[in-house]
Design a protein that fits this description.
This protein is α/β, with parallel strands linked by helices. It is built from 6 helices and 7 strands; from the N terminus they run βαβαβαβαββααβ.
Length: 191
């Protein structure tokens, strides 16, 4: 991904689930997929990688021309599969990933921007590669989650089932970035 100078931060959009409670894959709901890509780009990500799974062909047809995609073949295992595939697909020049979920339509670019700017200026001498941060809404941790490259192997190992990086994040120092003034951060499971 990306041939650019300096640290690269990539938005990793997880959009692979079947959306059983929704009645269709959330990647196919309204404009959520395209809107989420734009939220990540406008919020400060240098590029975006979309992870698809259920209804991957239909979802791919909704994407802008040239949008990078990876398909999680084991998407039905849960969010952990999507996260593993997405992090594993990021190139060596990527310093951090901003993990976002397609079913958070009220989370806008302002939230992503706050998480990215706070995380990439965390004061680490190693840049943002060793940073873990996440949006919080009234003190409750949520998405997006900023994961520096130094944590990817541990996250990939811990990402099983529908827990994603939750277990890994609980056992590491994670900077909470309060965003409750910008959004509620709740995922949408029903129309």
């Amino acid at each position: 991904m990306l041939d650019q100078e300096g640290p690269v931060i990539v938005g990793l959009l997880l959009a692979a689930g079947a959306g059983r409670r929704m009645g269709l894959p959330k990647a196919l709901v309204d404009d959520w997929l395209v809107r989420s890509i734009e939220v990540l780009r406008t919020g400060g990500c240098d590029d975006v990688l979309v992870v698809l799974g259920a209804a991957a062909d239909e979802a791919r047809a909704l994407l802008p021309v040239g949008q990078e995609v990876v398909v999680a073949g084991d998407w039905d295992e849960g969010m952990g599969a999507s996260l593993r595939v997405g992090l594993g697909a990021l190139g060596p020049g990527v310093e951090a990933a901003v993990v976002h979920l397609v079913d958070l339509p009220d989370v806008g670019a302002d939230v992503v921007s706050r998480v990215v700017s706070t995380s990439s200026t965390a004061g680490s001498t190693a840049g943002s590669a060793d940073v873990l941060a996440r949006a919080a809404y009234a003190g409750v941790p949520g998405h997006p989650v900023f994961i520096g490259r130094d944590h990817w192997a541990g996250v990939i190992e811990a990402a099983v089932g529908d827990r994603g990086a939750r277990g890994y994040l609980k056992t590491h120092d994670v900077r909470l970035v309060e965003c409750g003034d910008l959004a509620d951060g709740n995922d949408v499971d029903r129309r």
